[in-house]
Specification:
Layout (H helix, E strand, L loop, with lengths): L7 H18 L6 H21 L7 H24 L1
Helix pairs in contact: 1-2, 1-3, 2-3
Protein name: GlsB/YeaQ/YmgE family stress response membrane protein
Family: Belongs to the UPF0410 family.
Pfam families: Transgly_assoc
């Protein structure tokens, strides 16, 4: 998170926003804590996937929000597959 220029407080806020956006797009219902976790862990997952594809991870607040959103959507989709 520090490499992206985002501190811990900002990561929690941005992660919450990213998780909330993913929750709305994926028609899921989760609480605030889960949205924050989805956004933060989602950003980590998305950065890892981008690294595997040799794509430069996005930097800064907006980049963290975008990668968090994409990663959170991926995690929600994986969760749905596992539950079925």
């Amino acid at each position: 998170m520090e490499n992206a220029g985002v501190g811990w407080i900002a990561a929690i806020i941005i992660g919450g926003i990213a998780g909330w956006l993913a929750e709305k797009v994926m028609s899921s219902s989760m609480g605030l804590l889960m949205n924050i976790l989805l956004g933060i862990v989602g950003a980590i997952v998305a950065n890892w996937i981008l690294g595997l594809l040799n794509i430069q991870p996005l930097a800064g607040w907006l980049g963290y929000l975008i990668t968090g959103f994409i990663g959170a959507c991926i995690l929600i989709a994986i969760g749905r597959v596992i539950r079925r």
